[in-house]
Write a structure and sequence with these properties.
The complex is a heterodimer of chains A (229) and B (172). By secondary structure, chain A is of the alpha/beta class. Chain A folds into 2 domains: 3-26 and 97-224, Rossmann fold (3-Layer(aba) Sandwich), CATH 3.40.50; 33-93. Chain A contains 11 helices and 8 strands. Chain A has helices spanning 3-12, 33-46, 53-56, 61-68, 74-93, 101-110, 123-132, 158-167, 181-189, 203-206, 218-224, and strands at 15-18, 25-26, 96-97, 114-118, 139-143, 174-178, 194-197, 212-214. Chain A is globular, with a radius of gyration of 17 Å. Chain B has one domain (2-169). Chain B is globular and about 50 Å long. The two termini of chain B are 16 Å apart. The chains are: A alpha/beta (229), B alpha+beta (172). The interface between A and B is medium-sized, with 16 and 11 residues.
């Protein structure tokens, strides 16, 4: 994959769908993800849920939430989903901006493209971050985690399709930028091309299915080819 | 800024206007000092790299203006031609042109965010955007001794106050 491939993918894209945690910011930079995962486990134990070993060792709150979908107990799912959402809003206050994440959003807008966020984090936490960083006006819509339905998070195409529908766009004229395999899968299942953001060593290899892979968000800014750059 | 008086200078060049002398005074923001804008959008903080970019843009514009005015004297079209430039540390928030103490034009600079290249890297900045600003004319006529005349007078007084107090020599 080359700069030419990236240019080809970007040239076709009228809409940029951004995953939030990764391409835009690191939401749990200060408010630790593993602490939140631990809190969610405590909630589950309080609800007399038996935790399998892989969940006991899990550091990702969203993996703990996804596990609740297997319990067949809607009230517990809702409880954990709401607790996760509260923690995410707290975490968003101390989230760390991704290098050149803002530049991607602003340059995409300058180039006449529309920008949406499609996140497995709660919409409220995304709004909190965008608002604190004066980015709200650039992004529409913000599609957060489907309420109390963790089985419909990415890699399910549901949130991606929700964004595409809200924008009245064709999947092929969108592109999703994500930093996990589930982003790529969700995008492709929705018929949307996907750019893998390899923000950690070893990720590039896992993004074999992505249409193109970048190591820095700055590569996207360059691809937007804005006059001032 | 140069564009604003280019048309007038062109008229002198082709002989449509024949002034004896031209004196231009320019007051601009000092890009060597931190100001409210231009600044980084992410944290609204000052950044010397952004100001260096602003300074390059300002320098180009000042040089173009200075050269165009000087050219008229060199060609013998006017007896004397001078351009004086001073800088101040207030942020660029508007533009104001005062012509021969008779007319004034005022335009707001909205603050816009855009991604530019700073030290070879993309950076989102808050910046003054003068390109599309509407210029409001204040052109007093003989029978109209009201607002426009007062505006031109006050604009001139403001300019002179800045020029004579907090403004400093521009080092290009």
């Amino acid at each position: 994959m080359t700069t030419a491939d990236l240019a080809k993918v970007i040239d076709r894209a009228r809409v940029i769908l951004l995953d939030f945690d990764g391409p835009v910011c690191s939401i749990f930079a200060q408010h630790s993800a593993s602490t939140v995962a631990h809190e969610l486990r405590r909630l589950l134990v309080d609800q007399a849920v038996t935790l399998p070993p892989e969940i006991l060792a899990e550091r990702d709150p969203l993996a703990v939430l996804r596990f609740t979908a297997t319990l067949g107990r809607p009230a517990v799912v809702r409880l954990v989903d709401e607790a996760t959402a509260r923690e995410e809003v707290t975490a968003a206050r101390t989230a760390e901006p991704t290098p050149y994440g803002r530049e991607v959003i602003v340059a995409a807008q300058q180039s006449g493209r529309r920008i949406a966020v499609v996140s497995n984090n709660s919409a409220a936490s995304v709004h909190a971050y965008l608002s604190a960083r004066r980015l709200t006006s650039y992004v529409h819509p913000v599609i957060g985690r489907p309420e109390a339905a963790p089985e419909r998070m990415k890699p399910d195409p549901f949130p991606v399709l929700a964004a595409v529908r809200e924008l009245g766009a064709e999947p092929a004229e969108c592109v999703l930028v994500g930093d996990s395999v589930s982003d790529i899968e969700a995008a492709h299942a929705a018929g949307v091309p996907a750019i893998g953001y390899a923000n950690k060593p070893g990720k590039r290899e896992r993004f074999a299915a992505a249409d193109v892979v970048v190591d820095s968000m700055a590569e996207l800014v360059t691809a937007f080819a804005v006059d001032e750059l | 800024m140069y564009n604003a008086i280019q048309e007038t200078l062109d008229k002198v060049r082709i002989g449509r206007l024949t002034p004896e002398s031209i004196r231009v005074r320019v007051l601009i923001s000092d890009m060597t000092s931190p100001m409210a804008i231009p600044c980084r959008a992410e944290d609204q903080a000052d950044d010397p790299g952004i100001r260096a970019r602003g300074r390059r843009i300002t320098d180009r514009s000042i040089h173009a203006l200075t050269d165009a005015v000087q050219e008229l004297a060199d060609l013998g079209l006017v007896k004397t031609a001078t351009t004086e430039v001073r800088v101040h540390r207030a942020a660029p928030l508007f533009k104001l042109f005062i012509i021969n103490e008779q007319e004034a034009f005022f335009g707001f600079y909205p603050v816009v965010e855009h991604t530019v290249s700073v030290d070879g890297k993309p950076m989102a900045i808050y910046d003054a955007m003068g390109k599309d600003a509407i210029l409001f004319p204040f052109t007093p006529s003989d029978e109209d001794a009201s607002n426009d005349a007062l505006y031109v007078e006050q604009a001139r007084a403001w300019f002179d106050s800045m020029w004579g107090t907090i403004a400093r020599e521009y080092a290009s």
